[in-house]
Amino acid sequence: MNKVKGVLFAVISAIAFGVSPILISMTYSMGNNFMMMAFTRNLLVIPFLLLYVGYRRLSLKLNKKQFFQMCLLTIVGICTSLMALYASYTFIPVALSSSIHFIYPTIVAVASVFLFKEKLSFLRKVALVCSLSGIMLMANFKDGSADLLKGVVLAIISGSAYSFYILYMAKSGLLRLPTIVVTFYTCIISSVFLGLVAVFSGKFTPFEMSLEGWLITLFISIMITILGTMFTQLAVRNVGTTITSVLSTLEPITTIIIGVLLYNETVGRVKLIASFLILMSVFLLALDQKNMARKRAKNIERYEDIIADEF
Known about the structure:
By secondary structure, the chain is mostly helical. About 80% of the residues lie in helices and about 0% in strands. The chain contains twelve helices and no strands.
């Protein structure tokens, strides 16, 4: 039963994340812009998170080291990723941007080799080739379009920044904090930082957005935080990271399908092949992760057998 629930959580999470780019790009015609979107997405959900923290009676105390780590994680990992991703929507179709953003699992896998001395397995090598090939096909530099190049670069920056978020979360010790507490502080810090950037860049335009735009933005904020982030965490708890990672590929697939059906976004054969290669890299990395988990389990069993034989 837990596995069924976990799969359901993962699917709903992926679909929620996949729908959000379409809704975000929709608000741009209602007076919104990428900076305001990144700012309001975090700001509007804070009251709901605060109510949940109060209901659960969770402590929000952080020591100085944790606060510094939280600021670094949020500004470099989350804020940079959001600004770059949402800005890319103004240059290229959201389907292509979402697919390119999905290079982050490959970046995490490769970075782990250099930073943490993890082994670059055969599957990781193939995943890296698939991911890089997908990006090159997606960019289509022969196209000569300046907007295309800007959009691709921004989507790559977004994926790279999100890779930092994943790696830093795993190695900084912040994982020991309750998930809702981390989410609350990242939203607070993001709101302050992105709000200041929006003001000083001239992108702070709250009165230019229509009521419909504000309502959609509020819906996006709640959907991403609850159906996206929290459901992903529930999926990991119930079925593990491997299955959750594989099912997360429904995110760009959802974006592509909705973009084509509702907004007539053009995704040619080459772009589809490129998207497939990037998503294939995620499948390969998930498979590699599963193989590594099996090897660790076997090593533990062998160690226990040796100890048992000695006694």
